[in-house]
Write a structure and sequence with these properties.
The chain is of the alpha+beta class. It contains 13 helices and 7 strands. DUMP binds at residues 109-112, 120-124, 196, 223.
């Protein structure tokens, strides 16, 4: 179960006691507050708090008080201009605090984004639950033959069953030993901060993650990309749902100028201009490597 009974009771209590405020609120975000979006087999993402909305981005860009006399249409145009020209500071005026439950190996990828405030559940003080990420059969893949950090074909039949059984057995065996080291009858037991080192990286952890919108969108641009690892991409997809309701104008601009856009090198632009003129273009004539040429072809063939 992604949320335990205590967390469910806390959420119910918070949602049953709404607070009045004079600060700006996002109606789209209000419906997400405290609700958990299930991710993977035991994980979730839920909004704990937020600050700002689309108007806050424009307010910061204009350095004005309140909404001023600008129309919503003008605000959307300004936000698109800011996104299109890679202005960052106005987007930093919005912040979000998330509660995330995720496998440790996903957390190790996630924490590489060092532009957030993080407080993680401590296995030095508490005992971790027996919850492990076990991929669904359709996400058990072989190693890619063209990408050293990617996946290839889906494993099937006996091979898939063999791998899944190993994952389950090893996870439970490690947790059995974790419990035994901590609380073996008649012995003092090993300190929790040492016993945890025997646990596998597919065990679940939790953290609070607070980040401004600019850095959040950078995270989403990388982790919601189709090339990102599936297990972190599904978390990014869940967060995208929240951001789209929180700051709809900013998210639409983000979709158009980041998620749905591509970045071309100078050599790629030479190749593209040549193709548009009907010229014969090759990787060698444009000074591109074989891999860059493949990436260029993927861009124009998509």
């Amino acid at each position: 179960m992604p949320l335990n009974p205590d967390q469910l009771a806390e959420i119910q209590d918070l949602r049953s006691s709404p607070k009045q405020t004079v600060r700006a609120v996002s109606e789209g975000m209000e419906k997400h507050l405290y609700h958990a979006i299930d991710v993977l087999d035991h994980g979730f993402v839920r909004v704990i708090d937020y600050m700002g909305d689309d108007a806050a981005i424009c307010q910061a860009a204009r350095v004005s008080y309140g909404k001023g006399t600008k129309s919503v249409q003008n605000d959307e145009g300004l936000i698109r201009y800011l996104m299109r020209h890679w202005h960052s500071t106005p987007f930093e005026m919005c912040e979000i605090k998330l509660h995330v439950k995720l496998p440790v190996f996903v957390a190790r990828q996630w924490i590489r984004h060092r532009t957030a405030n993080v407080n993680e559940y401590s296995a030095r003080y508490s005992i971790l639950d027996r919850e492990f990420y076990i991929p669904a059969p359709e996400h058990v893949n072989a190693q890619s033959v063209v990408n050293n950090q990617g996946r290839g074909e889906v494993l099937e039949g006996e091979e898939a069953a063999r791998v899944l059984e190993i994952l389950k057995a090893d996870s439970n065996r490690a947790y059995d030993n974790y419990e035994a080291m901590i609380s073996e009858e008649g012995q003092l037991g090993l300190a929790r901060e040492l016993a945890r080192m025997n646990l596998p990286s597919n065990i679940y952890t939790q953290w609070y993650w607070k980040v401004d919108l600019h850095n959040l969108l950078h995270f989403l641009r990388l982790r919601a990309d189709p090339h990102a690892q599936y297990e972190i991409r599904v978390y990014a997809d869940a967060i995208c749902q929240v951001v789209a309701d929180w700051v709809p104008a900013a998210y639409k601009a983000f979709e158009d100028y980041r998620l749905g856009a591509v970045t071309m090198s100078a050599q790629m632009m030479v190749a593209l201009r040549g193709l548009l003129k009907g010229e014969e273009v090759t990787a060698e004539s444009c000074g591109m490597s074989a891999r860059e040429w493949r990436e260029f072809q993927d861009m124009i063939d998509a």
